[in-house]
C-alpha cells in the first residue's frame, strides 16, 4: 500500500467519524455538548492536516488523478466544516436563549443572526480563496508542462542547428576540394601545352 493510499484510508475514517459526531450533536436536545464540540473540532483539525499531507504527496507523484481526488476531498472537508459551524451556532443560540427571556431573548437572537451572517461571509471568502488556490495550482502545473515543451523544442532546434553547421562545413570542404582539383587540371593542361609547343619547335627546327 502506497503512502497516499494510507492517507486515503485514514481520511475516509476521519470524515466518517466527523459526520457521525455532527449528527449526534444535532440530535441531542439537552445536555452539555461541549465535549462533543471539542472532539469534533479536533477531528476536523486532523482531517485538515491530513489533506495537506495528501496534497504534498499528490504533487510529488505528479499523478493528476491523485491531485483531482485531493481537491474533491478538500471540498468535502469544507462542507463538513460548514455543517459543524452551523451546528455550533445553533447550539450556542439554544444555550443563550435558554437563559434569557422577553426583550433580551430578541436582542440575543438578532445578535446571533448577525454573527451567523458574518460567519457565512467568512466561509464564502474562504471558499473563494480555496478556489483561487486551486486555479493557481493548475496554472503552475500548466506552466511546468509548457516549460518542458519549450525545453524539448529548444533541444531540437540546437540539434538541427548542429546538423546544419555540419552540412555547411561539408559543402565548404567539397567546394574547396573542387577548386583544388580545377587548379591541378589547369596546371596539367598548361604543362601539356608547353610540352607540345616544345615538341613542335624542335620538329620544325630539324
What are its keywords?
single chain, 206 residues, mainly alpha, Methane Monooxygenase Hydroxylase, Chain G, domain 1, Vesicle_trsprt_v-SNARE_N, v-SNARE_N_sf, protein transport, transmembrane helix, coiled coil
Structure description:
This protein is mainly alpha-helical. The chain has a single domain, classed as Methane Monooxygenase Hydroxylase, Chain G, domain 1 (Up-down Bundle). It is built from four helices and no strands. The protein has helices at 3-27, 34-61, 64-98, 102-205. Helix 1 packs antiparallel against helix 2 and helix 2 runs antiparallel to helix 3 (64-98). It is rod-shaped and about 150 Å long. The mean pLDDT is 79.
CATH homologous superfamily caption: t-snare proteins
**Which topology does CATH recognise?**
Methane Monooxygenase Hydroxylase, Chain G, domain 1
Contiguous uncertain segments of 5+ residues: none
What radius of gyration results from the CA coordinates?
42 Å
The shape is rod-shaped
Whole-number average pLDDT?
79
Q: Give the helix level as a range of percent.
A: over 70%
Order of helices and strands: HHHH
Question: Quick one: CATH class?
Answer: Mainly Alpha
Q: What would you say the CATH architecture is? A: Up-down Bundle
Ends distance: 111 Å
Mind summarizing the main beta sheet?
none
Q: Which structural class should the secondary elements be placed in?
A: mainly alpha
Count up the domains. 1
Q: In total, how many beta strands?
A: 0
Beta strand %: under 5%
Number of helices: 4
GO molecular function, one term: SNAP receptor activity
Organism: Triparma laevis f. longispina
Family: Belongs to the VTI1 family.
Membrane topology: Single-pass type IV membrane protein
Amino acid at each position: 500500500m502506497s503512502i497516499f493510499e494510507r492517507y486515503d484510508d485514514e481520511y475516509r475514517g476521519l470524515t466518517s467519524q466527523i459526520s457521525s459526531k455532527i449528527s449526534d450533536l444535532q440530535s441531542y436536545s439537552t445536555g452539555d455538548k461541549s465535549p462533543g464540540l471539542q472532539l469534533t473540532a479536533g477531528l476536523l483539525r486532523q482531517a485538515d492536516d491530513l489533506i495537506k499531507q495528501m496534497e504534498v504527496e499528490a504533487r510529488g507523484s505528479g499523478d493528476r488523478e491523485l491531485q483531482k481526488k485531493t481537491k474533491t476531498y478538500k471540498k468535502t472537508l469544507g462542507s463538513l466544516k460548514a455543517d459543524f459551524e452551523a451546528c455550533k451556532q445553533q447550539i450556542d443560540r439554544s444555550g443563550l436563549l435558554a437563559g434569557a427571556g422577553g426583550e433580551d431573548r430578541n436582542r440575543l437572537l438578532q445578535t446571533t443572526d448577525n454573527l451567523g451572517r458574518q460567519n457565512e461571509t467568512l466561509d464564502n471568502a474562504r471558499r473563494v480563496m480555496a478556489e483561487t488556490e486551486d486555479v493557481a495550482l493548475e496554472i503552475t502545473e500548466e506552466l511546468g508542462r509548457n516549460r518542458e515543451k519549450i525545453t524539448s523544442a529548444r533541444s531540437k532546434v540546437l540539434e538541427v542547428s548542429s546538423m546544419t553547421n555540419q552540412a555547411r562545413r561539408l559543402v565548404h570542404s567539397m567546394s574547396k576540394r573542387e577548386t583544388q582539383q580545377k587548379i591541378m587540371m589547369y596546371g596539367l593542361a598548361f604543362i601539356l601545352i608547353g610540352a607540345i609547343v616544345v615538341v613542335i619547335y624542335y620538329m620544325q627546327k630539324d
